[in-house]
Amino acid sequence: MLRFSKISKKNIFKITVVFLTIWLILVIALIAINHNKIIIGVKAGNIYLSGKNKDQAREILTAEITEFYGQKITIAYNNLEWEIFPEDLGINFDTSRSLEKYWNIGRERKNIFSNINRQIKGVFRKYDLPMEINLDRSVFAKFYQKNLAYLDKPARNSILAFKGSLDNFTVIKEEWGEIINKEKLIKDIENNVAFLSDLPIKLEIITDNPETTILESKIAKEIIKYMAKNIPLFLTLNEKKWEITEDVLIDFLEFPAEYPGEIEKYFLSAGLRKYNKNNRIMGVDLNEKKVIDYLTVLSTGINREPVNAQLRFEKGRVVVFALSQNGLRINTEKSAKNMIKSIKTGSNNMELIYEEIKPEIGTDDIDNLGITAFLSKGESNFWGSPESRKRNIQVGASRFHGILIKPNEKFSFNELLGEVGPRTGYLPALVIKDKKLTEEYGGGLCQVSTTIFRAAINAGLKITERFAHAFPVAYYGSPGFDSTIYPPNPDLRFINNTPGYILMQAQIIDNNLIFELYGTDDGRKVEVIGPTQYDIKPDGSMKAMLVQEVYDSKEEIIQKDTFYSNYKSPSLYPIDRNPLE
Questions:
Q1: Are 516 and 502 in contact (CB under 8 A)?
Q2: ∠ CA 198-199-205 to the nearest 5 degrees?
């Protein structure tokens, strides 16, 4: 027996050694087979990636994804079906992230024995891993809204309905609803797509429960009765009052599902001790957006823009001939919150919250502007203009009279011009548009822009944008010293490159339009050469050149600009008559 036992132990040892050797050889073989390849047993849906290197796996995945994008996904409900391409659902495949996930199976851990264990398991148990995808919720929402939303029948909370007054209302019963289980639908889509499955996705319809029922409306009725005692309501501002009628207040009301604690914050006597603090009941609130919209309309008759001090240059200095005025603007958002809080707490007087807006130039600022010298003048003659054109020149010039331009500020004619139409006093007159002369409101405004251009050139200001007219216009004298505008483009733009503010003043004497600029004398000298006409053709077309040279107090040139004009023949621009004349 002893001899047999010794032989058995030797045999067992040999068998164990043989077994471990074979096992080690198989493990080494498996590691060798899986070296620089996705390990055996890894697949994505029905796509086997075992034994593929990264490039091969990427190529396979790309081909399968491309094929999948060309197939439609089916969503089914009872006897209804919707077929849609993955891209139109907002599906995006992340191939790189998927590939990394597949590649890391059996490699991701620092413990070599753990990695070997996962590689061995791959031989006997498949790693069926989903693709990495992203679902663009905004794209999905468009599909849902267009195709599926009509199936949703959301629940309706119990609410109060009014018949003309706060003390005449009925309670409308709640309604249960049925809606698509949207989150499940999204998960099902993501799961099917991740495994490149073509199986139909079934919609699940679930019950949608109302949050508040007719049995929970008692508190809301009490709050409404409380509010009715405070009618009429008044908005106040600086001793002025605006009445909030009962109809307006009813339109503001809404009945959200609220927790008792929320209602107690503004209605302490509601008797909420009987209610479970964790259960929602019917509350009463005011729709903040509706209140803001109401106040926005109301404020149009209350708001006022600030008014700059009106200035005049007399005896070498600027003087005030009209005092500045602060502006006022209702803060509709803050006022709405204040109004809602006041109504909830039982007050029938609510103060509007406003902001004072200071003018750019106040009466007290005059002495700090640095306007002490006459800088330049621009002049043009509009003799022969029809009365409508004269009217537009007068209205347009008044828009620029008394404006102040800060140091380094960019002047834009079109931005300062504002609305051009009958509401702002303009009349129809001829303008150049689409290679025609046609009547349009504001015809003649180029007389204003041309005259300001001349004043700016003579003051040595930096012109950054100027366009000549399409053809020579008699009102502007010698061609080459004009500037056309038409909002929003073309425009006349320049920069106040003087050290102080510039005051612009306009006046009309007989048929002469004059713009004068006043500011700070920095010793500059300006020389204007031209305009010089050349390449003059018999049909009236020509070219012109105007040169502006600016010298500093040391008579060194600091700025030189040349303005070219290319005028076409006037015969190319026929008058387009209004067929309604």
A1: no
A2: 130
Structure token pair of residue 427: 């009349």
**What is the Cα–Cα distance from 276 to 279, expressed in whole angstroms?**
5
Long-range contact list for 62-66, CB < 8 A, 24+ apart? 62/95, 64/196, 65/93, 65/95, 65/131, 65/196
Q: Which residue has the higher pLDDT, 170 or 545?
A: 545
Would you state the structure tokens that stand for residue 295, as one six-digit string? 């106040």
Tokens of 75: 């969503």
C-beta separation of 249 from 350 below 8 A:
no
Do residues 302 and 332 touch, judged by C-beta distance below 8 A?
Answer: no
Confidence at residue 393, expressed as pLDDT on a 0 to 100 scale: 94
Q: How far apart are CA 366 and CA 359, in angstroms?
A: 12
- Provide the pairing of β-strand 281-282 with 257-258: antiparallel
**Which residues contact residue 179 at a Cβ distance below 8 angstroms, ignoring those fewer than 6 apart?**
151, 152, 153, 154, 205, 206, 208
Comma-separated ranges of CATH 3.10.20.800 domains in the chain: 217-310+325-357
SS3 372: coil
What is the distance of C-alpha 86 from the center of its chain?
30
To the nearest whole number, what is the mean pLDDT of the chain?
Answer: 85
Report the CATH number of the 217-310+325-357 domain: 3.10.20.800
CB 407 within 8 A of CB 501: yes
In Å, the largest CA–CA distance within the chain is: 143
pLDDT digits (tens, 9 = 90+) for 467-517: 999 888 888 988 999 999 988 889 999 999 999 999 898 999 999 999 999
* CA–CA gap between residue 189 and residue 193 (Å, rounded): 6
Asked if 339 contacts 347 with a C-beta cutoff of 8 angstroms, the reply is no
CA distance 320 to 313: 9
The gap from C-alpha 219 to its chain's centroid, in whole angstroms, comes to 41
The predicted-structure confidence for 363-418, as pLDDT tens digits, reads as follows 777 777 888 889 999 999 999 888 888 999 999 999 998 888 999 999 999 999 98
CB of 352 within 8 A of CB of 330?
A: yes
Q: How many residues does the chain have?
A: 581
